[in-house]
Structure formats: structure tokens, C-alpha cells
Amino acid sequence: MSGPLLEHGLFIAPYHDIDESPTVALRRDLELVQWADRLGFKEAWFGEHHSTGWETISSPELMIAAAAEITRQIRLGTGVISLPFHNPLMVAERIIQLDHMTMGRAMFGFGPGLLPTDAAMLGVDIKAQRDLLAQGLEVLLRLLSGEEVTAVSSWYNLNKARVHLLPYTHPHPEVAVASAVSPSGGMLAGRWGVGMLCLAATQPQGFDVLAENWEIARQVAAENGVVMNPRRLRLVAPMYIAETREKARADVAAGLARWCEYFTRPSPRGGIFGPLDRGDPVDALISSGRAAIGTPADAIAMIEKLQKKQGDFGVMLTLATNWAEWENTKKSYELYARFVMPHFARVNEHRRQSFARLKEDFAAAAPEVQKSIEMAFSRWKEKKSAMPPGKS
């Protein structure tokens, strides 16, 4: 990347097997964020879902509030709030409260709602969800800016509505919109100059339109007198790494099979991840470029591929899949922090240069080192010869 250095984070939908304790799983999500904070990850995003049984966080705001109390530096985001399911005033109030409670560490992603089963239970027209998101986001941003809003929609009726507390962050916390394949996310991001969360960055269709959707956002932004900042562009990808490729494959085999069963149940095509029930799913994900399952070098290669396709972007978010056992999962993030992060931070460039020149530099210094040793012996001999007899 030619621009500022890449940052790293987590995207926690989450994915919890229906055979496990949901209580333990949610506590583990919080422990994962605490672990990531210690390792130096910069962000963690929590999803919102209300059906299917696996994606068990229904309120990302509650997760942010809990995670903020056990972490020190990591930024915490909603990934994403399904805005057509909520009254914009209530969302704005919760955002501002979290902004104060976290002292500016909270971020807010919005989307139309990914799961059609969520929309069906709430009686939301699936075909209208993107339009509803655009409508609600405009109202939300006005409220966050301190405006008084009177507006009527199919799901809210605001009468001189205003937030009673202004944000801790000026002018308001960071806002981002979800973007998968269609251009709607990029258009909305460009309209308001907000960030983008590319949730399908390594899925074939999503990968193909990465640069195109960003260019759409830039063009729409220019039409509205704003400039898109690539530091607010985030790409999401599934990654699991171990000391060897063989170990990585073995670690995820059972959990990945269950995860694939979840994705293929609502759609034989596997949703945004494509077919996952044909042959070895590990091979399917690796060969198609949809996931990095291997060593830190494989994770680096995937990210560099995304950089080549997209250009500069701000944050690489690892999709928290829970494919492996808990201790192995923690080890994967540790290996990422030890070997993947420093590669993109370029913190070891001078160390490598020093190591590469070690033999040459020591050889060049050797004569002077020898002279120094000889001088020390010479001084000792002079001092010894000057001592009175019997004192040596």
C-alpha cells in the first residue's frame, strides 16, 4: 500500500453452533475481544441478527457496552445495526450514550438487514429494505448532528424529534454502511461521506466489484461535495492460521463442516460464500480465494491480493468463524498479531536490513575491535610495569 499503514480488526457476526451453550458462546465473544485488545488489534465489530439460531447477537450495542468495560484501546462497532428494524431516534440515543460510555471508542455500521427471516418476522418488505436504509440513515445523521427532525415513514413518526444529549465525539461517532455486491452501499456511503464495510470482500462476486463499488462511492461523494477517505474502507475475510497448513486444516475440519451446513441450509448455493457442500469445504474455500486457512504467509498473501484489487483501504477485518477449538482460535489470532500485523506495519524493515548486513558490518569493524583489545592489553602492561615491586 502506498498510503497510511493498514490496521486490523475482527468482525463478529457471530457464528455459534446450535449444539453449544449460547451463554458460554457470548461470554467467549467478549473474551475474544479482550484477547484481541491485548494483541494490538484496533477494532471489533458485532452483528445484529434475530433468526436462524447461529448468529446469536441481537443487540450489538449491548456487546459494545460490555466489551468497553474489559478493554483498554480497541474500537468497538456495530456491524451492523439493521436500521429498517428500528426507530431512528432510539438508535441515535443509544449511539450517543455509547459514545459517552466508551469515551469515543464506539463506531456505528448500518445496513438494510441481511437475513430475510429477520425482515419477515417484523413485517418489513424485503424488496424495500435498501430504500428504507437510505431513508432512515438520513434522519439518523441529522439527529446525530443535533437537528430537530419531523418526518413520517412506514415505520416511524417523528414529531420535532431531537436527541437530548449531544455526542462525545465531534461532530459525531464514526458511521459506516454495509456493502456486499450491489452498488447501493457505495452510493449511500458517497452520498453522506461515511465509511464502508465490505462484508463479501473475498466472495467471488464481492471481490469482482470491490474497486468498482469504491469508485461509485467516490463519484457520488464528489457530486455531493465530499471526499471519500480510504482509511474508512474496511474489508472482511474469513481467516484461520496455525504453525503449518496441515495443522490449520486439521484444526478447522469439524467446525468448518458445521459452519458450511449452516450456510447451505437456507441456500444450496451457500449464500455469499457460494457452494460449500461439494467435496472438501476447506479445499473449496482456499481454491476459490474465499478464505485463508493455513499459515501467516497465507493470510499475508490474501491481504496483498485484496490490496492489489482494491488499492488502499484502512482496516482488514478477520471474520470470526469459530471453526476451531477455543485455545486454537486464540492461537490463530496470536500468530496473526505476531507475523501478519508487523508485515503490513513494516516495523521489521530496519531489523532485517541490520541482520542482512550483520556479517559485513562485523567484518568491517573487526580490525578496530582488535586494535581496541590490543590497546587494553598495552595499557595494562604499562600500568603493571609502573607498579612498585610486590604490588603486581
Q: How far do the termini sit from each other? A: 66 Å
Supply the helix-strand structural class. alpha/beta
Q: How would you state the average pLDDT, rounded? A: 94
| Contiguous runs where pLDDT drops below 50 for at least 5 residues | none
Q: Which CATH-level-2 architecture of the largest domain?
A: Alpha-Beta Barrel
| Radius of gyration, whole Å | 27 Å
In what order do the strands lie side by side in the largest sheet? 1-2-3-4-7-8-9-11
Specify the biggest β-sheet: 8 strands, parallel, barrel
Question: What do these coordinates show?
Answer:
This protein has two domains: 7-350, TIM Barrel, CATH 3.20.20.30; 353-386. It is elongated and about 105 Å long. It has helices spanning 22-39, 60-68, 88-101, 116-122, 129-144, 184-192, 204-208, 210-223, 245-264, 281-287, 296-310, 326-345, 349-356, 358-386, and strands at residues 7-12, 43-46, 75-82, 106-111, 149-152, 157-161, 175-179, 195-198, 233-241, 292-294, 315-319. 42% of the residues are buried. Helix 6 (184-192) links the parallel strand 7 and strand 8 (195-198). With 392 residues, the chain is α/β, with parallel strands linked by helices.
Quickly list its features:
single chain; 392 residues; alpha/beta; TIM Barrel; 2 domains; eight-stranded parallel beta barrel; two-stranded antiparallel ribbon; 14 helices; 11 strands; 49% helix
Topology:
Blueprint: E1 7-12, H1 22-39, E2 43-46, H2 60-68, E3 75-82, H3 88-101, E4 106-111, H4 116-122, H5 129-144, E5 149-152, E6 157-161, E7 175-179, H6 184-192, E8 195-198, H7 204-208, H8 210-223, E9 233-241, H9 245-264, H10 281-287, E10 292-294, H11 296-310, E11 315-319, H12 326-345, H13 349-356, H14 358-386
Parallel strand pairs: 1-2, 1-11, 2-3, 3-4, 4-7, 7-8, 8-9, 9-10, 9-11
Antiparallel strand pairs: 5-6
Helix pairs in contact: 1-12, 2-3, 3-5, 6-8, 11-12
